[in-house]
Design goal:
The protein is flat and about 105 Å long. The chain has 790 residues and is of the alpha+beta class. Helix 15 crosses helix 17 and helix 18 runs parallel beside helix 19. 31% of the residues lie in helices and 19% in strands.
Length: 790
């Protein structure tokens, strides 16, 4: 019985643990009995999960939307457990309470089941194309002693001058640089697994480098004589000597990929190994953390002036100096340059462009932060401020779980950025696998970077996870420490927590619908029927919730994403004249509040409107409307004001009928196109289902090859191809200008305006009385048959 109740609550879109189920049963029993007095009417306060009597904090997390009117229905997406879940844990897990949201123990003997699916990954790199452009300085170049190739232009000129074929050769432009990525294997680097995989794939596909190799850096033992630095060709592979990284001939660049969180970057043994590489190759450190977080790593770079002595020259041969403070000259007693240092760059295109210019041997001095390799400079070079560290294993909390969780969340919020605090609130609503956390970050906070996710993961909120070389990033699920998830949600009511989860699930589903085809990760989809081959724990958290389809329809296409729906509604408002030409749309914050979506969804909707040519968006200035509004209608006082309010309203009323007939005499089809588009969108969305649509246009004063007429023909053909309605479009032209602009709609409405020469007709349309509609019909038919040319 309890299992059935839990499944019913889960299908309704709510989340309830053992305590909530007990409250539900107790309240149901009280409601079934007669009221016995005020003392038994209701509990004085809702439970907050606290045991010390203090109210739980309400963290600075996501703003709460209104609870959805209807519970979500359809198919929920869950993370797929690995084939061997036991190897994903670094040690014994502390036991969770039975109602813990992250618990994976199914209370019933027959858990829910689902179907394994593949879900598209969100991109971890912010701008891959910008990264490719930044590295162009390392591309093909002429290498002395290389093969020759045909120089086409001089060959053509010489052949024409001498009237015979004279090939002219030149040294071929070829790839000249080998790239080696040496990836740190500290367990914090597991958070950057997808970023590094995308970076390696991007560097390989660009074709800039002769070869792209990857090594993994391991540090074992402890600082001192027992320290051992090795490398391997794959995580957990056979240890090999570090000297093998520089094996081979030719120009090479070594990028040390790390987040500098590990204390091993302070070891002299590691500095000695890096120094050996610097003696043979150009070496740079690629810090995957954003530059704003460098001060919270284990080492602190110092600014230096660098100049390479040649293309891909060894780092030890570079010119190294300390830049003067500000614009003044270096004074006596200023710090001297380190004897050896490695330049440090982040993954921004600007920093990579400076590194590419330096390594290519441009001869210019570049100011870059550097990691000193000198023993006297590296000792004690730890960053200032709160450090980024994974939670250490075996931490015992002397206080109860609630007090420890409250202390951990407060410590995190004191040092975390506002975006990281908001992201932590969103992540409390989903399972914590790396692909899902990146999806939530992309969908809910489009302006964030991967460093905000690292702030949450390394901020002392998660349980320890195993080392980089033993974890499976596709299946490893991070877990909040006991009580952290409830503390992040604070003292919110159950309906508020459900609303936040529904918002996250909806936004992630919308973001997934708009992702292009690419890499994916395994997941489990549970439909309403609960039929499948993979078990799903009854208390498992979904990370997305797709909308249900109408079982009575034959359409198997996915539902329209939320950003397309928002774009369609804004498009209808623009074309119907709600937003005038030259005006600005409301701010993204107000649009997100109005439609109940995130700002990321609004941004994607505005990009759709830009692609349609309806708005122009500029950063800091909002979106400006570009399309002129439909023609207004001037209403005589003696006519019924409620019958027709304009061309757009007249067409909207006409599309309520089963058969639609529109006849027009115009000099241009812009006004008709602007008023007809929103109604065709209503047909596409199924709001109205006309049987037939017939449009006849008599265009006078030109031919039928104008852009607006062709666009009108196209949108009608698209409607005919997608919908089941019969759509007919007929165009006739006349060279003489029209005496008036006329619109006849369903033989019920007639709108007219006199045509002025020269210039476009800007006067409002006039609504004719009903007794003039038949006369206007006869006039149109005569002009259509006598003057029009097919």
């Amino acid at each position: 019985m309890i299992d059935r109740l839990r499944r019913a609550v889960a299908d309704a879109g709510a989340e309830a643990g053992a305590e909530e189920l007990a409250d539900i049963l107790w309240l149901a029993r009280c409601m079934a009995q007669p009221d016995t007095g005020p003392a038994q009417s209701r509990p004085e306060s809702l439970p907050t999960g606290r045991t010390d009597g203090a109210p739980a904090p309400r963290p600075a997390g996501p703003s709460l939307p209104k609870p959805p009117a209807d519970p979500p229905t359809g198919a929920a997406l869950f993370t797929a457990p690995g084939s061997d879940p036991g190897r994903l844990s670094a040690g014994p897990r502390p036991s969770d309470p039975p109602d813990a949201p992250g618990s994976r123990q199914s209370p019933g003997p027959q858990p829910e089941r689902g179907t394994p699916v593949r879900v598209r990954r969100a991109s971890s790199l912010d701008d891959p194309l910008a990264v490719m452009r930044a590295l162009r300085a390392l591309g093909r170049r002429r290498v002395p002693g290389n093969r020759m190739e045909l120089d086409e232009e001089p060959t053509v000129s010489a052949s024409v001058d001498h009237r015979m074929l004279l090939p002219v050769l030149r040294p071929a432009r070829d790839r000249w640089l080998d790239l080696t990525l040496v990836v740190d294997t500290h367990r914090s680097m597991l958070l950057w697994h997808d970023v590094i995989a995308e970076l390696r794939r991007l560097l390989t596909q660009t074709g800039l480098f002769r070869t792209v190799r990857m090594w993994f850096l391991h540090a074992s033992g402890s600082r001192g004589p027992d320290a051992r630095i090795t490398v391997s060709t794959r995580p957990g592979g056979e240890p090999r000597r570090p000297q093998e990284v520089t094996a081979g001939r030719g120009h090479g660049l070594i990028l040390l990929v790390t987040d500098t969180v590990s204390d091993t970057w302070l070891w002299p043994e590691l500095r000695r190994v890096v120094g050996q590489w610097c003696a043979h190759r150009a070496v740079a450190l690629l810090n995957v953390l954003p530059r704003r977080l460098w001060g919270r790593g284990a080492v602190q770079p110092v600014p230096c002036l660098l100049r390479a002595t040649g293309p891909a020259a060894p780092t030890f041969s570079w010119s190294l100096a300390v830049p003067p403070p500000g614009r003044t000259r270096r004074h006596t007693g200023a710090p001297t340059a380190p004897r050896a240092a490695v330049p440090v760059v982040d993954m921004s295109p600007r920093a990579l462009s400076v590194l590419a210019s330096l390594v290519s041997g441009s001869g210019r001095r570049h100011r870059l932060p550097c990691l000193p390799l000198d023993a006297d400079r590296s000792a004690g070079a730890a960053g200032e401020g709160p450090q980024l560290r994974p939670q250490d294993a075996g931490v015992a909390h002397a206080d109860d779980a609630d007090r420890a969780a409250l202390r951990a969340v407060r410590s995190f919020e004191e040092s975390a950025s506002p975006a990281a605090r908001e992201l932590a609130g969103y992540l409390s609503a989903v399972p914590l696998t790396l692909p899902v956390m990146n999806l939530v970050r992309r969908a809910m906070l489009p302006g964030s970077d991967h460093g905000h996710l690292a702030e949450v993961a390394l901020g002392g909120l998660l349980e320890p996870w195993e080392a980089y070389d033993r974890a499976d990033p596709a299946h490893l699920e991070f877990r909040f420490l006991p009580g952290i998830r409830d503390t992040l949600q604070g003292s919110r009511l159950r309906q508020e927590i459900t609303a936040v989860r529904a918002l996250v699930h909806r936004e992630v589903s919308t973001y997934l619908d708009g992702l292009p085809t690419g890499s994916d990760f395994p997941a489990v989809r549970r439909a309403s029927a609960g039929v499948g081959t993979r078990p799903i724990a009854s208390d498992a958290l979904p990370f997305a919730h797709t909308a249900a389809r109408d079982p009575g329809t034959d359409d198997d296409s996915p539902p329209s994403p939320a950003y397309l729906t928002v774009a369609a509604m804004l498009r209808e408002e623009i074309l119907s004249g709600v937003h005038r030409e030259g005006s600005r749309l409301p701010s993204q914050f107000r649009l997100a509040e109005r439609f109940g979506v995130s700002r990321g969804t609004v941004q994607r909707a505005i990009r759709e409107l830009e692609a349609m040519g309806l708005v122009q968006s500029r950063q800091g200035s909002g979106a400006t409307v570009l399309v002129p509004s439909p023609r207004p209608v001037e209403m005589p006082d003696e006519l019924d004001q409620d019958r027709d309010a304009g061309l757009g309203q007249a067409l909207r009323d006409a599309f309520e009928a089963p058969d639609i007939r529109i006849d027009a005499v115009v000099a241009g089809a812009t006004a008709l196109l602007a008023a007809l588009r929103p109604q065709l969108w209503r047909v596409e969305q199924g709001e109205v289902t006309p049987v037939s649509i017939r449009v006849r246009v008599l265009r006078m004063g030109g031919d039928g090859a104008s852009r607006d007429v062709e666009e009108l023909r196209r949108v009608l053909e698209d409607t005919a191809n997608r919908e089941r309605s019969t759509v007919e479009f007929e165009l006739r032209t006349a060279t003489s200008p029209p005496p008036a602009e006329v619109y006849l709609i369903n033989d019920r409405t007639a709108l007219t305006s006199y045509f002025h020469i020269p210039g476009p007709n800007r006067n409002p349309l006039g609504l004719l009385p009903e007794d003039r509609v038949a006369e206007t019909r006869s006039w149109f038919e005569s002009w259509w048959s006598l003057l029009g040319e097919n």
